[in-house]
Amino acid sequence: MPYFILFLKGFIIGIGKIIPGVSGCALAVVMGIYEEALSRLANLNKNIKENFKYLFPLALGILMAILVFSKVILFFLEHFNLVTMCLFFGLLLGIIPSLKNKVKFKFKDFIIMLIIIVAFLLLFNNLALPFFIINSKISYLWVIFLGMIDALSMIVPGLSGTAFYLMLGSYSFVLNLFSNPFQDILASFCFCLGFGISFVIFTKLFNYLLKKYNHQTWVIIFSFILFSLLEFFLQIPFSFSNIFSGFCFIFLGFILALLTPS
């Protein structure tokens, strides 16, 4: 695959990483690079040269998107919240048709998905965490945990790190950390430490699960996607006066996701 195409796909994945409710990893599935990228990451020390040629432009695109768009997304969320949230919801909704083709669901699969979704809804809707700020040395342990979530969201399609950050009161903190990584060097180091530990462990684990338990793994992935979709929709600040414009932007996001290059 040409390096520029890999860079472009990485750039799209990077944008998906920083918008709430949109899984960059799920976008990788839609664009047909997820399983190959995961396999190369899990076996990085085998055929290092070829793996580097494939993964470097992909990683560069992701990094560039995060650095360029972090401040832009934060600005739009602060000044055009409804429009931005609706557009992001439509993007997530639009990737579902492509993901559904990955597995043929049976009746028991829908029961499992329902149980997972309800369990996650009960867990996160009972969390009332305040907005996170670093106010002690103990806070840096939480930053390590946030880094672990970020790595996990890069490995598991449908598991949106940004959606989890919103629920944990840490979204603004992480976005500002992405925008100004040198403002707090220790926080950046802790985040990278958590990311690195989680990335190494879960890349190999998830690659193994996809090979040995492909059907069951995709059922869990689809459960995460449906949970993120439902939870994100409940956070959109709809009112009687803005519901029409909101659904127009949901439709726009849906169409844009369907047109994502594959």
Account of the 3D structure:
With 262 residues, this protein is mainly alpha-helical. 77% of the residues lie in helices and 0% in strands. The protein is built from 12 helices and no strands. The protein is globular and about 55 Å long. The relative contact order is 0.18.
Sum up the structure in keywords.
262 residues; globular
Structure summarized in a few sentences:
This protein has about 260 residues and is an all-alpha fold. Helix content is about 75%, strand content about 0%.
| Count of strand segments | 0
Shape: globular
Number of separate domains = 1
> What is the mean pLDDT?
83
What profile does the largest beta sheet have? Answer: none
Distance between the first and last residues' Cα: 12 Å
Structural class given helices, strands, pairing? mainly alpha
What is the rounded Rg? Answer: 18 Å
Number of helices: 12
Secondary-structure topology with pairs:
Layout: H1 3-18, H2 24-30, H3 34-42, H4 48-79, H5 81-100, H6 107-125, H7 139-155, H8 161-167, H9 171-179, H10 185-212, H11 214-234, H12 243-258
Helix pairs in contact: 1-2, 1-4, 3-10, 4-5, 4-9, 5-11, 5-12, 6-11, 7-8, 7-10, 10-11
